[in-house]
Fold each of these.
Amino acid sequence: MTKEEKVYVAYSLLTDNLPYYFVGMLLLYNVGYSYTSIGLMGGIAELVSIVSNVPSQILLSRVGVKRIMMLSIVLKLIGFALLFFVNPAVALFAAVLLGASEGLVEGNAQIYLCLLTSDELRYQTLYRKIAFWSRLLTAALTISSTALMTFNLFIPLIVSILFLLTGLILLSGLPDVSERLVSKVNQGIQKQSQLVMMPIFVLGLTMAVLIMVTNTYASLLLQKSGVSVAYIGFILFIFNLMMAFGSYLAQKINIALLPLVAVYGLMALAIGLIGKGVVVTLALFFVLRLVNGIWQAEFTPSFNQLITENRSLAWSYYTTVLSIVFMIADASFGHLADMFGIRWLYLIVGVLGLLTLVMTKAVTVKAHD
């Protein structure tokens, strides 16, 4: 790796793995925020992220991707600092800043890495390495973040701020690259709108929902399967190690996306149907997390390979639609869990994954014909 690539790797690992991400809800509740305030903060942040995503592409052509990424860090720093006031009104303003921060950085970090590396192959290799190291760091922070709260509830938030400050310094020392636009903006919009019909676009949205649902309810399902709460933290640590191993495999083996969707859907179905004992449930979850790690290391490079023009706009479309889908899925699957139970969620997402796989395969075959 070049010196600039090493600096970017350090920046990415620090800013993508903030301790606050792993204990945010627990931290906010224990320092005095109500469930209502926490829920409002999450909803406002998600909504602002969606609203600010597409307009951020206008800034991209005017100020450059690096300055947008730096602005994102500054907004997040201010938002985190406001949480120390433990005031519901101030917290809502913090949520606006945190949502805007996410909206600005989504997709742009990948664009910057693409432009920083010398060619597409080098980008893919570096991205998979970052995914592997990030999973290892996530595994460590999953356990250490809760441990830090035993000394002081605000320590994870303080460490997150230090991570962001270090990331800001590292990013400021990197070159200011600018995306090369080979077509007019309106032409780029017309071409990139075809991404909605691309199989990989649909696959990406589907797998993102499957991963979100299976990860969100994993702890509760493990507890219902007989796993003691005292061991769940350690098991989640092992899950993250499995994802790191999946990222490592992606560096060594070229794995297509469609088989990953098939395996993930089948494992989700199996958890819903036969995952009633501790051993069987854990084994199935291990496979899920392994596939999850491989997918996350493979999807972004594969997606970028299909975008030859105006990557920023393509990622903006994707992340905006994904955010909307997440908002709908959060409410829908929560309601389904109340009505039918958690195991039914895994059956539903398993069927959803397999149906999407069949439809995507059919569309792909028809397109080739």
Amino acid sequence: MKKAIVVSPYAHLAGHHWSVMEKLVRYMQSKGVVVDGGVTCFSQHIKNESGIHARAILPKWQCIYQLLGERLLHYKKIQSILQNLETFMILIWANKHTRKNQSVIYCVDARHVILALFVIFTRQRYVHYLWGMYENKHNVAGRIKILLYKWAFDTGRLDFIAETNDVEISWRDVGARTAVIPYAIEKEFSDNLPDRHDSRKQLGLDLNKRIFLLFGTHRQDKDYRTVIRAAKVLLQRDFAVHLVFAGAVISENDPVKLLQEEDFSEATVITGYVDEQKTRLLFAASDAVILPYPKDYKKGSGVLLEAVCHERPVIVSSGGYLESFVTTYSTGLSYKPADSDDLANVLMDQRLMNCFWGTERFKRVKDEYSWSTLIERHLSFLD
């Protein structure tokens, strides 16, 4: 019988971690795997669903965040210290429990150095489902990290799962045993999608304007300024447009601040955690989803797959993985990064209103990227 302890130090954050963790556990259990789970802190967004025991390792952990304040947490050094501690605590808990039943520790994202140290010194088997590229820094700290990573991989007790080929290649260069399993979606979730007009009414959005959604945590590398300037170009062309920003602010890239700086008011900003019901309404109310990442962005995107799940076309910056995806599956359009005029032309493209609706192209993606399709590849690491 296969056994796993699924953990994530970041499940309390307003991102994909809890959603991925909960679904991973649920689909593992559907295949007969005995699963236990842990998260670093207690949060109102974490529920005991599908039999998962979402143990809180540090029940008062949120107090630290509240004492430091949201602004301080934008500083990378403070984030790094807290995330190291979070990873340390969750792996201490996981090791204590895995010794009882010989489970594989399956970690949904973590601080890589802390994880490497645990692999080296605890003799447990680990699987790391990561979303970040390996960044080679040519300094003393960077060289020490490489040595730690190689030592951990040489033990044979650590496997990495990457969401894109580029992420996999970046880690393979430092000796990682890696496999590519993309971000998964629940295709059943797209059954009975909300009506667009009804969704707009519930959200208080205009029924006659073209609405573009920017969904997900507001990261530093999302180029919102170009999107806002493109929308201003559309207004100058008498094109009715409205932007919707939805997600938690986790960097200095605050859409409210940028909208004020650009003197643009045709926008709605929803900050913080967005629950599943509101998520469905936001996607349903939108004409398209914009992912404004930098040129040659090589990582994947959960929002990209969520948009497809909701059968909404995606507008992405060209030159990287995102453009390759929408080109391969014909599920969206691309624009030149940092070029507001080019983006404005794309936003006016009539194909967004006609070509992408009611086609089979979304069904193809939902079949290939569904949890029911990909779960077997995850289970292969539990042998």
Amino acid sequence: MDPDRVTPSDEVLDLIGIIAMHRQAMEHDSGSDTAPARGEALRKLNELLARERDALQSHGPGGRHSANVAAVMLELAKVRNSPEPSAARAGYSRRTQLALSQPGASRSFPRHKGRRTTGRGER
């Protein structure tokens, strides 16, 4: 087997997908508090990583276990580095509040005036 062409096993890819879907469902259900969902996903991914590293040590460097380890580590990095949705919303609302709280800031928003024809003068 060429080590560059080895892909993760279907079992590991399925487990990663199940963990990700469960995390997203928990985040959706909990609303703004995503910490428990992320914590559980990180715990499950770390358990899967430990299992795959043990399999890699027992079977040697050849085979799919190295690709499995790489796939789990990639998913761990995604979960760790994913932005907090509540932090992103707070940043947006903070910018909006700062823009509106400046003196002289226009508080009226332009209305949609519909489709306008171009090139016709007033009659």
